[in-house]
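Hey team,

Filing this mostly as a record. A colleague (T.K.) asked me to run one chain through the structure pipeline before their review meeting, and I want the input and output archived in the tracker in case anyone asks later how it was produced. No errors, nothing strange. Just documentation.

Input sequence:
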Amino acid sequence: KGLSMADVVEATLEGYKQGMAEAKAEGHEIAVYSLLCGMRQNKRSQEVAELVVKYRHKGVVGFDIAGPEDGFPPSDQKETFDYLRKEDAHFTIHAGEAYGLPSIWEAIQLCGAERLGHGVRIIDDIDFSGPEPVLGQLASYVRDRRIPLELCPTSNLQTGAAKSYAEHPIGALAKLRFRVTLNTDNRLMSQTSMSFEMSEAVKAFGWDFTELQRVTINAMKSAFIPYPDRLKIIEGTIKPGYQKISAE
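Output structure:
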């Protein structure tokens, strides 16, 4: 109560700093960063975006926009996205969860999204009726440009975007080599974890450590942190980690 948004950002970043220091003291080096998220139905996206720029070198790595898609298209926030691009700031846009292909198209082509929050409805632009899947124009663009899909199966089951884990499009999209990433969306509200998401993907799609490593590396390739840091984590943590557990 009484805190400004800047106060909240600073308090959160200080908490991360303390947590990283405590982990390091116990022999566990971790890195924690923030995305600041605006809500479509509110009128404070520009204020949030300006905080992203202000704290970009202090632990904030990008901007996100969430909230209801229907009635609140990404283009409503275009001035904010134009500002972020002018400032060379990273951003992702929740699109293609509840509304569909038009939301994805706007997020990418009108607003310049680097990643798609969910993006699960890109499956609607793929024809599976023949012997081989045929990608439509938008699906081809998303795959060819390697636009990351922040897929959240458990959350999608709860919101009705998918009927079951086995029917979730993540399996088909991974087979077609979209840049699929596996996420929790919201661990508290969805009562999930990355361990649970991975175990469900293994059961539903027969994924092995090779596929789990692929989606993990996809996520790190798509992170809004400097390239050397991404490479260090991929080569120094992810690959050795999967190699170790695969050998057990």
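Quick notes for T.K.: The first strand starts at residue 34 and ends at 39. The chain has a mean pLDDT of 96.
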